[in-house]
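User: Here's a chain of 408 residues. Predict its fold as tokens.
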Amino acid sequence: MEDGIDYAAVFQALPGAVSILTPGLVFADANREFLRGAGRSREQVVGRHLFDVFPDNPNDPTATGRRNLAASLHRVLTTGQRDAMALQRYDVESAERPGEWEERYWSPVNAPVFGPDGEVVLLLHRVEEVTELIRARGGHSGSRARALEAELYSRARELQELNERLRDAHAREREVALALQEAMLPAGRQIRHRGTAVRYRPAVGALNVCGDWYDLVDLVGGHRLGVSVGDVVGHGLEAAGVMGQLRSALSAASRVAAGPAQALDVLGRYAGVVNGAESATAVTTFVDFDTRTLTYSSAGHPPPVLVHADGRVEFLDQATDPPLDARPDPLPRIQAATAYTDGATLVLYTDGLIERRGEDIDTGLARLADSLRRHRADDPERLADAILLECLPRGGATDDTALVIVRL
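Assistant: Prediction complete.
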């Protein structure tokens, strides 16, 4: 090509064996080296499901190649992370002698291909065949070579089993942490205010969960409501424990504080003595339904959004300070206030709602504002569902997300 690189030609000329799979594990393409190593023609591969082309050896009841490869590809799809597999034995049916299976060994690597919106749209499956290496005698006698081959394969299987046990342990920790998170966040019956909706969506990944929280509390004096969200850096049980401590502390401080800035001042001092609270963020708003005013303060957190009844979207970003443990004493935190009219909507959220890999945060904020503007007439429950549907990646977010909506 005169004006650019012919990437199709580059793909076909790659010296390694590479294929491209759809998220449904259907072959979209395969280069010449992949087809040569697999002993298949392009017509036998492209457009067909991976495991229809390469099933497990039916004569080997211990075969695990298909299961391991499927698990790796699924991890890439859900996490968006490259996955290098341990050495695999994956027998291949002979193209010349159907029904006969050839013992083959492979070193696979699977990687994501992202679309413009940051979602995984294709999977890159690269394999290096190491059958000859496994069988190489290296100058040893036949019995010695077979012993070395068995040892190498055994070590690879042990590594793979260890990785699987670690993933299972992480999955169990995730389940426990999510259960703890759910127990510590306000339940639906605790949120008595009409016109309120709350959502918590855990991250798709195995670990990056349980640092986000939300809270709603009736304030002393008049018809007032405190609404807060926060984010703890970290994941799993530790993050869930820190989250619970900070949420409870802010809930108590809000009940006696003169305003949201003072409540965050108290929380910041408390965060300074809580292990794991480093760089935690939070934002809190005090809603006065009698005077129709909204006072807010933020400690390093994305700004709340006030959607006015006429459709105007206002980001409450005039009172933003550093994260909770980063404010130098004795400077007090700042707060700001704004007025609203009946029918306005207050929205608080954590960064999982607006951040996507490789995308500027302003793009995420604009997407949120557009969604709120178009769906502002919906009741809070339907509005919350619409926001999550339009703002989170279709494959799920890589960070957990908390969302609070209050109709004013």
